[in-house]
Each structure stands twice: as C-alpha cells, then as structure tokens.
Design brief:
By secondary structure, this protein is an alpha/beta fold. The protein has eleven helices and 15 strands. It has helices at about 35-50, 105, 120-125, 130-140, 145-170, 175-215, 235-260, 280, 285-305, 325-335, 355, and strands spanning about 1-10, 15-20, 25-30, 65-75, 80-90, 90-95, 100, 115, 220-225, 270-275, 275-280, 310-315, 340-345, 360-365, 365-370. Helix 4 crosses helix 5, helix 5 runs parallel beside helix 7 (about 235-260) and helix 6 crosses helix 9 (about 285-305). The model has no long low-confidence stretch (mean pLDDT about 95).
C-alpha cells in the first residue's frame, strides 16, 4: 500500500497543503522547526487517529482555528480509496471511502504505518508504559477489534478505580459493585493478555532473523511478555480467568486500602533478552539500538504477513541516529518494497542507492516544494 496524495488543512503549522507522493522513498528535507515532523505525524494520525507525540488532540489544530483536517488517497491492492480525519475541539470524525466510521476502532487498520523516530530507541530502555502503548497500537493495526477491547478495558478500569477510591475513603461500604466490576475487568483483561502473548510470539519470529543479521550472527533476540498476574502463554481463557480471580480475591483488601487496581494489563511489561540477558538492564547502547531496529523492521514483515500488503514506513530523523551498518541494514530491508518517508536536515553522509533514487521535498515554514 502507499499514499498517492495527502492534503492538510489547519494542521499544526500547515495552513493548507496538497501534495502527491510516489510509491518509493520520499525524502523530506529541511531545517529544524519547519514542519518535517508535523508532516510525518499527519500521516501517522491519518492512519491511527491519534498522534505518537501528544495525547492532546487540540495540539494538532493550527493556532486560532477551530479544526484540523487530514485527507489522503490510499492505494491498496483492491484499489485507490480516500480517507479523511477531522479533529475539532469537540472530538474526531473519520471517513473511509466516503463513509463515516461510527467508531475509530473501525477506521484504524485501513492504512497501516510503522513509525520509527529517535524516541523509539526508548522502546527498549524506556518505561513499561512506552512498551504497552507500542504493542497496543501495533496489534490494533492488524486486529482493529482489539483496540475496541482496550478502550472497554480502560473504561472498566476507570470505574473500578473510582469505586475502590470510594471504599478507601469510606464513602461506601458495599462491596457488591466492586465484585461486579472485578468480574467485568477480568473478562476484558484476559482477552487483552492472550492477544498480547500471541502478538509478541509473532513479532519475535520476525525479529529474531533480523536481529541476527544486524548483529552479524553473534546475537539472539528473545521477546517475552511479563504479565503482572501469573498467567502463562498458551493457557486457555477459562484457566486465565481462574488465575485472575484467585489473584483479585487475595488482593481485594489491599486494593481497597490503596484505592486503586494493582494488577492487570495496564501494569504489564515486555522484556527483550539478547543472548539470554535483559538488554534493558545489561545491554550496551548498541545492543539496545539493534533491538529497537530489529523490532521496528519486524513490524513491517509482521503486518505484511497478516494483511498481505506492506505498510508505509515513517523514518522521522532516525537515520542520523544510526551508524552506517545499521543504516545500511535498514535501507536494504525496505529497498523497492515499502513506501518510505524520511525526514532529515541533510542527506550528506548517507551513501545508499535508495536515498540517491528517492523523491526529494524541501520544507520551509510550513510550505513544501518538490526538488526532483
């Protein structure tokens, strides 16, 4: 799949923009703070209906305007179709093939993207929250119903935390409602947990050979899901439910005392091991970067294997963060297969045929012109 056309209205520092792209590598050149990352973000938001940079949608709307609009024409194997997302202070509305989508979880997955930015190097060494968000967004691209499940889970979690807080401060003493919410919580939690186990096993399958290639055959990568409730990969849902129920019965008094939900998918983590050692704690910076790169490249292959098409790759100012070896491995992997957008302040020092044959665009103060 690839983007043929992109149009922005009142998006960040873009007043109005219409631009066409080819199904190859597109280099976006410009100085810092001119709009390169905003352009990349707009493609990500068109696909995912949320930003990778901010949780506040109002940040996406140009100063002194009421709404932002992103439109794209997407070429997929079954044809060329329009997508549109409008972001206002009241919320978001999304259309696919001119049909308004009633839920954003129905909309996500029509355009698949893999974003790799310098902050993604924190995938390995950053907080568990970063890794949870990563797996949720990636599963959502190939299984949109999963995002709806996560949304339902978070609503139940919020209600449960609110009720635990009321019990904590003695505003109520009736635990019946807590028991009902716990039952609903467990049902939602086990579905998320099982899907995350399944996704990470697939991701590991694709990431292992990539990691071995980048490390010149001397490192083996393993990816493990680390749940906060002691369930096991491959357990059927009824057994998982049983384990969750035992856990929450044991910690009920402690949760009331603390006024919050202490266990569940919102507390889980992902572990990366290289040659049997936790790369977050014991890995060198080079090993951490190789792991992050392997995982990102594995995403591309995983999505292709699930939907039959390669996603679009967004490389936001990341080439300069990689040494020549990792840079070459990345560019060789995408060569001729994946529509790719690369932002950079300069292509000097990137000696690769992929970049030499790319379409180049210059960004200056929210204006874009094509150079070749």
């Amino acid at each position: 799949m690839y983007i043929e056309k992109l149009a922005l209205k009142n998006y960040r520092n873009y007043d109005s923009l219409e631009i066409g792209f080819e199904n190859k590598v597109n280099v976006i050149l410009g100085e810092n703070a001119q709009g390169k990352t905003n352009l990349m973000e707009s493609i990500y938001v068109l696909a995912m209906a949320k930003s990778h940079r901010t949780s506040n949608d109002k940040d996406l709307i140009r100063w002194d305007t009421d709404y932002a609009k992103i439109e794209g024409r997407i070429n997929r194997k079954h044809g060329s179709l329009p997508m549109q997302l409008v972001i206002s202070k009241k919320g978001k509305k999304a259309w696919y093939n001119h049909i308004e989508q009633q839920r954003l979880s129905q909309y996500v997955g029509n355009l698949n993207v893999v974003m790799f930015a310098p902050e993604d190097l924190n995938l390995v060494k950053g907080s568990p929250q970063i890794r949870r968000r990563f797996i949720d967004m990636e599963i959502g691209q190939v299984s949109p119903v999963y995002l709806h499940g996560v949304s339902q889970y978070l609503k139940i979690l919020q209600q449960r935390n609110h009720y635990l807080k009321m019990l904590q401060i003695k505003k109520t003493s009736d635990e019946t409602m807590l028991d009902i919410l716990t039952e609903q919580f467990i049902q939602a939690a086990v579905r998320i947990t099982a899907k995350r186990f399944e996704f990470l096993r697939l991701l590991e399958k694709w990431a292992q050979p990539l990691h071995k290639g980048i490390s010149r055959g001397i490192e083996t990568l393993e990816i493990h899901y680390s749940p906060s409730v002691n369930v096991l990969e491959g357990q059927d849902l009824s057994k998982m439910i049983e384990v969750f129920e035992e856990k929450f019965t044991k910690v009920k008094a402690r949760e009331i005392e603390r006024g919050t939900t202490l266990f569940g998918p919102h507390r889980d983590d992902v572990l990366f091991h290289v040659n049997g050692r936790d790369v977050q704690t014991f890995g060198s910076q080079g090993q951490q970067r190789t792991t992050a790169l392997s995982v990102k490249l594995a995403e591309i292959e995983l999505i292709q294997s699930e939907i039959g098409e390669y996603p679009i790759l967004l490389l936001d100012d990341v080439l300069s963060e990689l040494d020549d070896h990792r840079q070459s491995h990345l560019l060789n992997t995408i060569l001729g297969r994946v529509q790719t957008f690369v932002t950079t302040t300069s292509v000097e020092g990137i000696d690769h045929q992929t970049i030499k044959e790319a379409s180049t665009f210059i960004v200056d103060s929210g204006e874009i012109i094509r150079r070749n």
